[in-house]
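Changelog-adjacent note: as of this version, every example in the card shows the full chain rather than a window. The one below runs 167 residues end to end.
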Amino acid sequence: MHAPYDFEVTRIDGSSCRLEAWRGRTLLIVNVASRCGFTPQYAGLEQLYQRYRDRGLVVCGFPCDQFGHQEPGSDAEILRFCTEAYGVSFPLFRKIAVNGPQAHPLFTWLKRAKRGLLGSTAIKWNFTKFLVSRRGEVLKRFAPMDRPERLARHIESALQDTDQIAR
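Full-length structure tokens:
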């Protein structure tokens, strides 16, 4: 698979979809968790989504329980927490693994497309973020400590490219 659009994912409500639904959009794909020191980043991710969604940004949140058992809840509990605590309206998906033999193929692809620090492919913690262009190219990988508001200039650049092509 050479683009994110080829991957099938399961929404947090249990329905299946392909990322094809967002072809032509700029994607910010994030592994998230509800009981992590970085959990307040949900607010920043939602702000980015609200600010840029009309220009084509889609934030995609993938809950993951591989780091310190910080996402122990069911999909329904995760959804309730995200909407009640942070007003999340961006797409959330069913809990997945991002590392190891059970890693979701989307994250395997993302990690190969954009390696981390010192060439590492493994995701080190919750709230690792991947910015994907509207053409399906992984533009940048952001570390968990990279707060969403610090991603704005990168998102603007990706959207500017999209805006110019659309004309």
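Structural remarks: Confidence is low (pLDDT under 50) at residues 163-167.
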